[in-house]
Amino acid sequence: MKKIFGAKKSQDPPPSIQDATDRIYKRGDTVDEKIKKLDAELARYKEQIKKTRPGPAQEAVKARAMRILKQRKMY
Known about the structure:
Layout: H1 2-5, H2 17-51, H3 56-74
Helix pairs in contact: 2-3
InterPro entries: Snf7_fam
Organism: Aegilops tauschii subsp. strangulata
Pfam family, one: Snf7
């Protein structure tokens, strides 16, 4: 039967609780970093919105800012 189905593969030992918590904390840290980057971009777009006159240019900047807000909300 081993010729047809093959032999069992050796499995890696399951991760320890400490390993799992470390991975979770790293994931949380990366999400926090991404949110900080998005906040910086939002601040930049807010300044651009204040400086531009009402019209299509300001609407384009607002659309970009809304896209960034949606990304931030997703995280």
